[in-house]
Amino acid sequence: MTGLVGAERGLGETAFVDALPEFVVVLFAAVTHLADPWFLFGLLAVGYWFASEGAAGSPRRAGATAVAAVTCAYAATALGKAWFAVPRPPGAMPPADVPAWLPALLTGWYEAQVLSDGFGFPSGHATGGAAAYLALALLYDRFWTDRARYLAAGAVAVAVAVSRVVIQVHYLVDVFAGLIVGGGVVVGALWLAGDPRVRRSAVSESAASDPASDPTAELNPEPAFLFAAVVSAGALAVAVAGGHTGEVVEAGIGIATGAGGAVGWRLVDGDEPAVPVRIAVPALAVTGGLWVGAYALAGTLPVTLVATTAAVVAVVALPALAERVQPALGGSRGA
User: Fold this and answer.
1) Residue ranges in the chain modelled with pLDDT below 70
2) What distance in Å separates the CA atoms of residue 322 and residue 277, rounded to the nearest whole number?
3) Which domain holds residue 161?
4) pLDDT at residue number 1
5) C-alpha atoms less than 13 angstroms from C-alpha of 35 in its C-beta half-sphere
6) Total domain count for the chain?
7) How far apart are CA 79 and CA 127, in angstroms?
8) 158 contacts: CB under 8 Å, gap ≥ 6
């Protein structure tokens, strides 16, 4: 089965990107941040906590479902990388070819972008980016127009995918597979969450065709979170069997994220107001610290799993916790 994707899977793209001006490569090294896991989950958390009914009819349900969809995307990536276990392009290996004109202050940053270890298929950035931006475009359906949202989502997802090829940490086939998997995972996650636009029943089709209906009103992201945990468990089994240490950690984090999301959602009703900034800021500091600690202690898997689970439970449960904390702080609902 692993022979379906070979180590030598380039299509001539390396010669093309080698001919690009250095400033173009540096530019795309910055673009790739738009699908870094920390950036995507930060973006999704902000949307989940702060979105109003001007963005989605049920902003908390829409936001949590977007988080669940991206969690599924990373679970699928972990499974794919552990299963195929093929290397990245040679350009991802040190030493990095740093442009001489780049300020010394940016040298470390540039090297961190263009050097990457681990397996290469499918691209996690392409998968996560496609899933995140498509999910945002579909779920925050009152923001902008449909056309504008889909064009923006597609443009960012493709730009990220191209960036991974330009900085030579992935081949074209890696990012193409990532875009396909990311888009497919979103459809599956929305189906699991009960989105009437992808469910095939007389009731759901009637609701989806009614312009006055709110497709986010009955979303339940818990099944999607649990599915991500199950897929991550499969990735863990494959990684352990193959002796892939890095993928074991990633799969473990996927299990913790999926389970933490499901537990956190059990604590909310789904109709909570936006989280007040004075509660969100310290919560972001705490959850961010837990997340950074989880990766910093990746060599101690049990600690990583506990820290990740706690961080995700806190992120997802925060709208409900904020409602309970508000009276003690002298605030009012919706402040």
Assistant:
1) 1-3, 6, 201-212, 294-299, 326-335
2) 10
3) 2-329
4) 43
5) 35
6) 1
7) 12
8) 179
